[in-house]
Amino acid sequence: MDTIKNCKHDSILPESGKSSSFPITDGSLPIRNEMKGDKKTKDENIIVMELKNITKIFESPAGESVVLEDINFKVKRGELISIVGPSGSGKSTLLNMIGVLDKPTSGEVIINGFNILTLNESEIAQMRNNLIGFIFQSFNLINRTSVQKNIEIPAIIMGMNRRVRRYRSQKLLELLGIKDKAEYKPMNLSGGQQQRVAIARALINDPTIILADEPTGNLDTKTGEEVFDLLKMLTRKYKKTIIIVTHNQEMALETDKTIFIRDGKIEKEIINKIANKNC
Predict the structure, then answer these.
(1) The domain 2-48+77-105+118-271: what is its CATH number?
(2) Each residue of 61-78: pLDDT tens digit?
């Protein structure tokens, strides 16, 4: 596997703003004023997720199909990672492994230093809801309920009390520029607004990692750029860790690191965000 440094300076994200006055455990999203005693870490070298020797084999009457083979990589806190590759390369299967929506045939998925594959199914479901946020290409919002209720669903599942989840959802609506849409039904919003709702829903539990599967795939170019800018802001300003699967090569070049998948293997990694003085 090759690691290449891409010295494209215009891919460097804007500098962080001032730290939030709402201390939280992971990052600095202004949604957790109920945790005033928490300590914020500034160590951006903390490894929040690691895949070790991930292999996935599907069994069928026709025989075995190796979809992923010996996948290894680490993700640091606050990184924006893109995964790209041709159709059938294993991108979606890899995202399912990271999000523990499916289990590998062998290997380890380590989040916050813990191998989550050692948990039982109930514990995995709880961990997934608490530590991982999901953003989907088709938004996956519930049209029969309001925007604010959609955002609060993961918090309800977590068991968060109504006052806290209402506070968090309101802060996220404000942060993402859709505060005035709280009582709307998703079907009455534009595609870009719906994706902002989906991003807020992914953030409500303040997850360690956010997984985004083609988050701009159903949007026009301008709206897609706006949504991507929001994701970049979340990593740069609030130190959220985001992994994106995309076919958009230009978007991939603006992430911190791009992982190329082909035939179920990591072909190469390109580091896009560089602080190297020689670049």
Answers:
(1) 3.40.50.300
(2) 989 999 999 999 999 999
